[in-house]
């Protein structure tokens, strides 16, 4: 099976115990852009009152209001007119206007309000873009959900189905609502606010369903990572010619043909037990990647030095100079058989900026030459392989040529 993108260097294969997986169909280079994916559905992370454009999610000093509800706002007339034909159709405009006045819903936790917002966007897709709704239905996630998702479906379905009219009343069932919620939970990506060092956590501006990127499985030491540039204009070098709501997947290091390409579903600094808990509760699987296999043998009470970690709070960060010197001389192959094979990964590919926890990938190669400038996928910091050298981000990436897929 191939991805629904032209000239893809990737293919989709079924792997026992992992479902569909993305495989390199040719050798891939560090920094190479392997996928640019556009969302089939986006919804704001603050469900009913986002200060950003409700269509493209850019921040803007002046926003135009929807002429019907006078409530949802758009950054310019193009976004407004595109939205009126898609993400803010008459049906969704009416549904949102009623939902945001529903006191029962407004008393619910934020997570459930977001689920309501997602369902309205998903059912709007079914009504306005049935082919994209079929793509959403083909993604992982079924009606056999965890108890919390089933409870949400029971609460939200009657509310949202009151906006349907014939023939949708028969088609849009409780089971469908439940399976849509599962698909959102397993597949949604967050489009992030630009990083600020003062925020401990970089918050999400909007959630999106990206049909091709949804096939990437998780690995706690990923070989690719995703970038997004929500506030950057398409003609800015940093956006590599993409739309601002696209996500761009780039290789962290070289991989041979036939290797599975994986992302990490969350920052790589999380410790073993919190990763395992999150993957089981949120994604329904037990991770047995190389890193988890090594760390499963570490006792919680063992000292950090014994485990090869430097931080008692089990955060995978290395700032100890001696340890860094030791690791600097290691190649990945040398670390394969020791107790801390990921030391090299943390040193080379984890951002060292305070509170960032992002992953570094080289800028796209020029021809065959891998760039020695690494970009952080969270804070956007640029740093050279040899030494820290911070490029003035406002000036863009002069001379860097994006690779085609
Ligand atoms: C975003 S989807 C990835 C694509 C999915 N495999 C499919 O068939 O559509 C996330 C789901 O993939 C599976 N998955 C992802 N990473 C995995 C891993 N490392 N081991 C086993 N299953 C994994 C889990 O079922 C998870 O809920």
From TrEMBL:
It comes from the Eukaryota. InterPro entries: ASHR2-like (IPR044238), SET_dom (IPR001214), SET_dom_sf (IPR046341). Pfam families: SET. Residues 5-266 form the SET domain. This is Histone-lysine N-methyltransferase ASHR2. It comes from Cicer arietinum (Chickpea).
